[in-house]
Amino acid sequence: MRLRVFLPAATVASLAVGMGWTAGVARERAATPNGAPTSVAPFDARIQANAQQMLDEGRQTFRFDTFGDEAYWSDELGLDRAIAGTKNGGVGAGVSPKAALSLGLKVDMDALPADLVDQIKANKVDLNDPATTIALIKLKSVLGVVGTFDAGGQMTKVGLTCAVCHSTVDDAFSPGIGHRQDGFANRDLNVGAIVAATPNVSLVAKKLGVDLATVKKVLDSWGPGRFDAILEVDGKGLRPDGKQAGTIIPNAFGLAGVNNHTWGGGWGDVTYWNAFVANIDMNGKGTFYDARLSNKAKYPVSARTGSWNLRNKPDMITSKLAALQVYQLSIPAPPPPAGSFDAAAAKRGESVFNGKGRCATCHVPPLFTEPGWNNHKPSEIGIDDFQANRTPDRSYRTAPLKGLWTYDKANGHGAAGPGYYHDGRFKDLSEVVAHYDSFFKLSLTPKEKLDLIQYLKSL
User: At what angle do helices 321-330 and 42-64 cross, to 10 degrees?
Assistant: First the structure.
């Protein structure tokens, strides 16, 4: 018996059109090299356009958006006046390009006009004059520093962006001047010295509820490449042993697939931390909510100031978070420079990493952190609990390892001696490996340790 299916004429016509369209697409694809399609489905095209738009907007936000933080850095602290100096309508000696470079600020050579580059090469530009710094800011060439200028060209305000801490340059022109590298932590940046140099640093003391001398001691303790992002919520300026409480500025690359973004565990992912920093540390104008920070015992500063529940109008941050997240997650970890590690030893070290060394138990390839909740208690990794106890769940994040070579000054990146781990407690990878070999009783041989180090340098 033959089964007959009867379809309305309109349906048959629609199927015929659809099949004709499909056949046409198939013919188009067959005619292209390697079977590459010549057309994109309408919603696929919308996805691609949206991804590109968010990438472009996120890059702009990362590099140039101050989120309205000029109200803090200029109107309150007076950073613009400190940069300008008395001769340019500000206060004090001002900040010359040489002084700015010594503080770790970076200059994007691609933002400089060709004639200016030639003048710098010919030593015709006064790098000891704060007016030159202002001119560089006007060109948007100083990474992470954005100026506002009046009709007469005078700088009236200055604000900071994500790039001030999380971008650097490749020194292609000279130390501190080169091609921009977004996502690289600026481990030369002396945040504490910059804040301490503002004329109204006493406002920081007032917010923290301490005297000016204490604030300056804390700011001075960080040094290049360190910052204490949690200070403005818990007020813990120093460790119980009197040492600095800041952490190494983290890289902002290679974070796709990584859950917790910061050194301490339990804060949140990339977009949480962007909201936290933009509102609380940069003092931008947005919305931020985290009821955990209202705990008076653990987070006395945010509980008192109300920074755990910010509702600025207008909100200049929230609408930028999505695109900013897309851009940051798109920044890949940079490959190590050629010749910076022993390839044969690294191959042997990979076997140690995945086997006897047990490193891959937590640093799971290819993320090199744990998929899921990538946190551990201090007792699990053999270190003290000071920084962990400042976090919501009292733990440390399993740091992803790609781009680990950027911590090494010998490769031309990072300030001398930032060290490894969240606070730089280990001066080099040999100390890191020795710590875990001892704590986990791995009994690695000297050769296995050296091979493992070369593998870590290769990531």
Answer: 90
